[in-house]
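We modelled the chain as a single entity of 60 amino acids. Its sequence is:
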Amino acid sequence: MTTVHHAARQGCATAALPAAEKASVAAQLQHLIDQHPALRGRASIEFPYQTQAYACQRVD
């Protein structure tokens, strides 16, 4: 399991962002956590992280 904040900071979707944009993503995530009844007040939130890879081969 990985924490939501860790994933937001280190995930491939945000890793290449400039620092200001990473901070914006983190702030939006924190806002969601603060507002959502199932997430509010929790010290940590875990979610399963799954990577999928596919390989294709052209058939002639």
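As a brief sanity check on the tokenised model: The mean pLDDT is 79. The beta strands are 2-3, 46-47.
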